[in-house]
């Protein structure tokens, strides 16, 4: 805060010297910073860009972009123009060209260097320095001052120290917090010339950066035109998944020369103070975009991990006398997930049932027949062979390889009638049993060949022993499967 140094500032009155026919001029911004200390400025914000923007900085009248080498004293980092540090020869006009989906736009900055005097100057002269920011404290209230040290993420700032009239501020009424100076029970004595100062590290190099603030005190909250308008949040609820990361921005429209404090609170406690130990919920840096008659301010709150305790709790954005809150709630259950899960369960069950029925079909049918008896009906006694054969439900033909066995079909009337019913009238089903494996059916009667082709055959199997019941052997299960279910007489009517 001592020896004289150089200052550079932006002159709003200077005409725009850089012209680009294809780009639209949107504004000229003002900034100031002492020489021999870092200075940075970003020309983009969500209000100026839509989608992914490409930003390029130029210095008039050169058409060559500013270097992107981080080791260069003047270089570009994303949308930032960075001076590490500022020098007298940096006076001039700079142009920021923004190319995005909305076309090409440009912002002009005109920098001028002037002398700055240290603590030996009087209070009135210090209060009127061009690089100073004016802020207001309200008498009898708890208020705060903000140190506007804005740099890209590559610049690491140490804790900020505060000074009044070149002396470091100490006392129970003052609390240092991030870039803010919290002042409890403001009094008339708090008027004066303030400065905030911090060490900055960039790519292994260290610098000292400071900002001056002219502070006035007032007993009035402010006239009606200075009442901030919080456009978001709107006392609304936001769905957030448990354990997720979430950032909510508070957007405020206010006058350009306002000094209103903008912050997030839980109840009446600042968020950063409430979560001082865990730092699970943090307040972000304030950014703003200045227009002709007003400015739009943005300050965010970030949840590194949403927990159950956050649901239903109001998180309030304060801007001067205005306030608005939001509350978190769990996301509504997705009905589509239940529907898809149900369909998958049904499909899986059907596939399992199909697989089981295909593998154990015979066992299932036999079990069903033994478990659920079908009631039989009384039948009339047949007096002729044909009628008796028609009452049969299965015709079992045992095949032997000797040709002699097939000649019997020519001489036995019962067998001939049975074959006739099976072939012509299709009145009964046929079970062909091969005692030994038949190598060829060519020598067999055509009727047997047809029946074998139509109904298939069952081969004799010796897959049982003396100790195991033959009824449980695979061969006999197949025979029982091809046989009709057992009939039982109908129940007798109950007697009166």
How is this structure best described in words?
With 496 residues, the protein is of the alpha+beta class. The protein has five domains: 5-116, Immunoglobulin-like (Sandwich); 129-218, Immunoglobulins (Immunoglobulin-like, Sandwich), CATH 2.60.40.10; 225-329, Immunoglobulins (Immunoglobulin-like), CATH 2.60.40; 334-363; 373-487, Rossmann fold, CATH 3.40.50. It contains nine helices and 33 strands. The strands form eight sheets. Strands 1, 2, 3, 5, 8 and 9 form a six-stranded mixed beta sheet that branches. Strands 10, 12, 13, 14, 17 and 18 form a six-stranded mixed beta sheet that branches. Strands 19, 21, 24, 25 and 26 form a five-stranded antiparallel beta sheet that branches. A hairpin with a 2-residue loop joins strand 27 and strand 28. The longest helix has 25 residues, at 335-359. The N and C termini lie far apart (121 Å). 20% of the residues are buried.
């Amino acid at each position: 805060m001592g020896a004289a140094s150089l200052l550079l500032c932006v002159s709003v009155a200077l005409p725009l010297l850089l012209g680009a026919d294809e780009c639209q001029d949107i504004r000229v911004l003002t900034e100031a910073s002492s020489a021999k200390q870092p200075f940075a400025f970003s020309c983009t914000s969500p209000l100026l860009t839509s989608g992914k923007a490409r930003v390029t900085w130029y210095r008039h009248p050169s058409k060559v972009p500013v270097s992107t080498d981080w080791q260069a004293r003047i270089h570009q980092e994303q949308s930032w123009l960075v001076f590490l540090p500022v020098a007298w020869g940096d006076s001039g006009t700079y142009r920021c060209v923004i190319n995005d989906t909305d076309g090409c736009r440009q912002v002009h900055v005109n920098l001028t260097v002037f002398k700055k005097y240290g603590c030996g100057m009087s209070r009135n002269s210090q209060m009127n320095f061009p690089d100073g920011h004016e802020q207001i404290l309200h008498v009898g209230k708890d208020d705060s001052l903000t140190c506007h040290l804005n740099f890209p993420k590559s610049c690491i700032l140490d804790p900020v120290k505060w000074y009044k009239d070149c002396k470091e501020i100490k006392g129970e009424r003052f609390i240092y917090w991030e870039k803010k100076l919290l002042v409890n029970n403001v009094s008339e004595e708090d008027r004066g010339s303030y400065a905030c100062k911090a060490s900055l590290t960039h790519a292994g190099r260290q610098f000292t950066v400071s900002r001056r603030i002219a502070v006035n005190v007032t007993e009035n909250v402010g006239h009606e035109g200075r009442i901030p308008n919080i456009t978001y949040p709107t006392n609304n609820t936001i769905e957030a998944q448990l354990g997720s990361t979430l950032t909510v921005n508070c957007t405020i429209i206010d006058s350009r020369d306002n000094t209103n404090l903008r912050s997030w609170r839980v109840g009446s406690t600042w968020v950063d103070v409430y979560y001082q130990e865990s730092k699970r919920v943090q307040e972000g840096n304030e950014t703003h975009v200045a227009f002709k008659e007003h400015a739009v301010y943005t300050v965010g709150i970030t949840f590194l991990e949403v927990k159950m305790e956050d649901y239903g709790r109001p998180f309030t954005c304060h801007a001067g006398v205005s306030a608005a809150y939001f509350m978190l709630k769990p996301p509504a259950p997705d009905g589509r997930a239940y529907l898809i899960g149900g369909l998958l369960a049904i499909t899986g069950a059907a596939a399992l049932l199909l697989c089981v029925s295909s593998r154990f079909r015979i066992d299932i049918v036999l079990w069903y027949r033994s478990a659920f008896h079908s009631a039989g009906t009384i039948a009339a006694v047949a007096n002729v062979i044909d009628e008796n054969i028609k009452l049969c439900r299965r015709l079992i033909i045992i095949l032997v390889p000797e040709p002699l066995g097939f000649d019997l079909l020519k001489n036995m009337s019962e067998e001939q009638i049975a074959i006739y019913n099976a072939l012509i009238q299709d009145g009964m089903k046929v079970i062909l049993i091969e005692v030994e494996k038949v190598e060829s059916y060519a020598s067999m009667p055509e009727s047997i060949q047809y029946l074998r082709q139509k109904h298939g055959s069952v081969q004799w199997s010796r897959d049982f022993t003396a100790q195991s019941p033959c009824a449980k052997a695979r061969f006999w299960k197949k025979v029982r499967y091809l046989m009709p279910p057992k009939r039982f007489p109908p129940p007798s009517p109950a007697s009166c």
